TrEMBL record:
Name of this chain's protein: Zf-HC2 domain-containing protein
Higher taxonomy: Bacteria, Pseudomonadati, Pseudomonadota, Gammaproteobacteria, Oceanospirillales
Pfam family name, one: zf-HC2
InterPro entries linked: Znf_put
Residue span(s) of domain Putative zinc-finger: 3-37
Length: 80
């Protein structure tokens, strides 16, 4: 499986159940490809944040807190 297929499947995984074959292929790919594994984690985080945002004002406050406390890896790994 190529990264383009893996990222597409990681996105589809949020919208529909994957077949057993798809799950196995995706698991094998993400086990050896850290960029795709990170993409999957980011997709799941974005999904959770967007769902929480639509629930309540309290959830919106939590989202703001998360964005203030957790910084993207790319910003924290730069040297100054």
């Amino acid at each position: 499986m190529k990264c383009k297929q893996a990222t597409q499947m990681l996105s589809e995984k949020l919208d529909r159940p994957l077949s057993t074959k798809e799950k196995i292929n995706l698991a094998m790919h993400t086990a050896i490809c850290s960029p795709c594994r990170q993409f999957g984690q980011q997709m799941e985080t974005l999904r959770a944040l967007s769902q929480a945002y639509t629930k309540t004002k309290e959830s919106r406050r939590k989202i703001i807190f998360i964005f203030c406390v957790i910084k993207p890896r790319s910003l924290t790994s730069k040297t100054m």
